[in-house]
Amino acid sequence: MDCVIDVPEYRTGEGLRFAWDDDFEIQLTVSSTDVVIKANRAGLTSLARHLLTLAQEGVREGSHVHLTAEQEIESDHDLILERMEEG
User: What pTM was estimated for this model as a whole?
Assistant: First the structure.
């Protein structure tokens, strides 16, 4: 199965641009042993797009998307997706 996801192109100096699919739903639960991310199709596609955005050539270490509890995600916790140094 092939899946095509449009990812906003990274342009140095303009910062990261993140796009959401309509009607996305994302839930995050955290226990002492597990972190569970549960989402509908639009939520999963949006998360995949965010990760692909961060993975683009030229994106600097520390660049991130901050998903805020009870705003972008249903949770008591925030979720931060961050680019780390290569190597």
Answer: 0.88
List pLDDT tens digits, range 64-81. Answer: 999 999 999 999 999 999
Rounded to whole angstroms, the Cα distance separating 34 from 51 reads 21
Give the domain range for residue 49: 1-87
Contact between residue 46 and residue 57 where contact means Cβ atoms under 8 Å apart: no
Q: Specify the number of domains making up the chain.
A: 1
Q: List Cα–Cα distances, 44 to 12, 14, 18, 72, in angstroms.
A: 27, 26, 14, 13
In single-letter form, the type of residue at position 30 comes to V
Q: Is 51 helix (H, G, I), strand (E, B) or coil?
A: helix
